[in-house]
């Protein structure tokens, strides 16, 4: 499996891993999603959460949407990330249900319409969530992560490096996105776990060194 040693290598690795996950067939995607969700439903931090954020998949990302119906049956409030208007690459987390008005953001990803999310009663600050399920591009066995390059999650979750309590932060990926090792950057926000369709990586003391160049 590949490793990454510097910015140029990380950019190339990101391209390679995105191609790898996009190459999965629809059947492989569905099977991976079902295996992922089975693993997540067994995790204590998912079972006990009452307010959960997840994402709608794009660009071959592993799909957590089968969890939405399971959360609804458990009366768990589900939130989606929304590109926060007039800010420097930060996210809102907006309440989502079947009737939520959606829009396509500048990256081509569906999200709750900004006019819907602008109402404070419909969104929560990240620190008020119990669990956040976030996408990634690559990961290693130490819990390090590389994202899409925008830095949205790192900026939004920067408080988690210095504040307790904090949400449980769980990265999701296809197992083909696993690599031997990733470098660490000073702005990284540690994850508590990374879950793929074939493995669960628990990080040391819940606070690993982790690399994230963005979503």
Order of helices and strands: HHHEHEEEEHEEEEHEEE
Q: Give the termini separation.
A: 22 Å
Number of strands: 12
Query: What's the overall average pLDDT, rounded?
Result: 86
Strand content: 15-25%
Radius of gyration: 16 Å
- Secondary-structure content class: alpha/beta
Helix content: 10-25%
Return residue spans where pLDDT drops below 50 for at least 5 consecutive residues: 1-5, 207-215
Biggest beta-sheet profile: 8 strands, mixed
Major sheet: order of its strands?
6-3-2-1-7-10-11-12
Assign an overall shape: globular
Q: Quaternary arrangement of the chains shown?
A: single chain
Put simply, the count of helices is 6
């Amino acid at each position: 499996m590949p490793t990454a040693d510097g910015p140029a290598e990380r950019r190339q690795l990101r391209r390679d891993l995105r191609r790898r996950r996009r190459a999965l067939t629809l059947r492989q995607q569905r099977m991976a999603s079902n295996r992922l969700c089975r693993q997540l439903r067994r995790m204590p931090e998912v079972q006990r959460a009452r307010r959960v954020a997840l994402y709608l998949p794009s660009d071959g990302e592993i799909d957590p949407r089968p969890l939405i119906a399971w959360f609804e049956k458990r009366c768990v409030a589900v939130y989606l990330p929304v590109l926060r208007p007039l800010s420097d690459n930060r996210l809102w987390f907006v309440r989502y249900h079947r009737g939520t008005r959606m829009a396509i953001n500048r990256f081509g990803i569906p999200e709750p319409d900004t006019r819907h999310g602008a109402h404070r009663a419909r969104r929560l600050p990240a620190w008020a969530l119990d669990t956040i399920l976030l996408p990634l591009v690559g990961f290693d066995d130490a819990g390090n992560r590389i994202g899409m390059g925008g830095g949205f999650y790192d900026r939004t979750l920067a408080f988690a490096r210095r504040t307790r309590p904090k949400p449980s932060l769980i990265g999701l990926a296809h197992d083909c996105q696993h690599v031997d090792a990733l470098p660490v950057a000073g702005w990284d926000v540690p994850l508590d776990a990374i879950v793929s369709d074939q493995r669960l990586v628990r990080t040391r003391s819940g606070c690993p060194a982790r690399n994230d160049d963005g979503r």
